[in-house]
Prior knowledge:
Elements: H1 17-21, E1 24-28, H2 32-44, E2 48-52, H3 58-65, E3 69-73, H4 81-90, E4 96-101, H5 106-114, E5 119-122, H6 127-174
Parallel strand pairs: 1-2, 1-3, 3-4, 4-5
Bound molecules: calcium ion (CA).
Amino acid sequence: MSDTTSEVPGSPEPASDQSTEAKTVLVIEDEQALALGLRDALEYAGFRAHLCFDGGAAAAAIAEHSPDLLVLDLMLPGKSGLDVLRELRAAGNKVRVLILSALASEEDLLAGFQLGADDYMKKPFSPRELIARVEARQKSMETAEQEDQQQRAAQWERLRQHRASAVARQTMHRS
Ligand code: CA
């Protein structure tokens, strides 16, 4: 997270701003041709994209890349996408998740949403459609970040007022 509040007024914009702002997407998908196509499409759309082909390697890949968004296939070798998601949530990781499902099984999708998946796409889909979904998720992430900042600012303001009134009370008691 870049700290814009401490910026010196009038200082030039950092040249690498765009690259540091790029969201990271981790695609966990064992169909390599599909995964490689998604990586190209994501990078073309300005995201940083990483690939993982095995459910058993997902946790390590997530730890390595700390993605802003997971694109998660459900049917994976090593470990199912649902198990990957279940373990992630059990560990307290709240990363946004877009599920890819070839099963078109409502039960699996329902289980995914109960585990906090944010969106899903049924295969087959076009990369363009996926990019649209990912960009929509990114927008909602940015909105959530802005709301977080506003909430923090409001909390600080309440804290400041609370302290000010506490100091005022102390002063009254002393006098
Ligand atoms: Ca698969």
